[in-house]
Write a structure and sequence with these properties.
Helix content: 25-40%
Shape: globular
Distance between the termini: 35 Å
CATH topology: Rossmann fold
Number of domains: 1
CATH superfamily: Peptidyl-tRNA hydrolase
Structural class: alpha/beta
Largest sheet: 7 strands, mixed
Order of helices and strands: EHEEEHEEHEHHH
Strand content: 15-25%
């Protein structure tokens, strides 16, 4: 097992029409980390767009599954097997309806909470024990169906807050890598 290799997966849907959707905030986080660490996502592996970079003596594999959200587990399973990475070194970032916009939560594992990409990942890995970074997108207004809401783009008025939360989420990932999951949870799971 590769203890100093980490797979950071952002969940989303491929294609320009989904690029700015709330459901694609996981992809947006991978893009933010890629810019910060000066790496380009150019290679396809295990049905995912991937890039690799060394950060603080750790090998980071960034991944954006290209299978669409509901089948994300296929890519995550393939990458974790190929790189022989223990599940505690595979962190999956995704949108969360139950957190308000601007909030993030890091968890060591747990159920899917209705997130279909996490359902697929649990099914393919055979465990709920892998870290997650939940990025709040808030609840749909009125009686709007959640499925419709997550496939809408963020409102223009929310874009500054979205950018701030992506920076915070990127910081949390790097603390997870360089310190520990507990350190990241302690620092970023508060109300800041």
């Amino acid at each position: 097992m590769e203890d100093n290799t980490y797979i950071i997966v952002g969940l989303g849907n491929p294609g320009r029409e989904y690029k700015d959707n709330r459901h694609n905030v996981g992809f947006m986080l991978i893009d933010r980390l890629s810019i910060r660490l000066n790496v380009r996502m150019r290679r396809m592996q295990s049905k995912a767009l991937v890039a690799s970079v060394i950060y603080e003596q750790n090998r980071l594999i960034f991944a954006k599954p290209q299978t669409y959200m509901n089948l994300s587990g296929q890519s995550i399973q393939g990458l974790s097997r190929f790189y022989k990475v223990p599940f505690e070194n595979v962190i999956v970032a995704h949108d969360d309806l139950d957190l308000p916009l601007g909030k993030i939560r890091i968890r060591p594992g747990g159920g899917p909470g209705g997130q279909k990409g996490i359902v697929s990942t649990i099914d393919h890995l055979g465990t709920e024990d892998f870290p997650r970074l939940r990025i709040g997108i808030g609840r749909p207004p009125g009686r709007m169906e959640p499925a419709s809401y997550v496939l809408q783009d963020f409102a223009k008025a929310d874009l500054t807050l979205v950018s701030e939360v992506l920076d915070k989420a990127a910081d949390a990932i790097l603390v997870f890598i360089t310190e520990s999951l507990d350190a990241a949870m302690n620092k970023f799971n508060g109300d800041t």
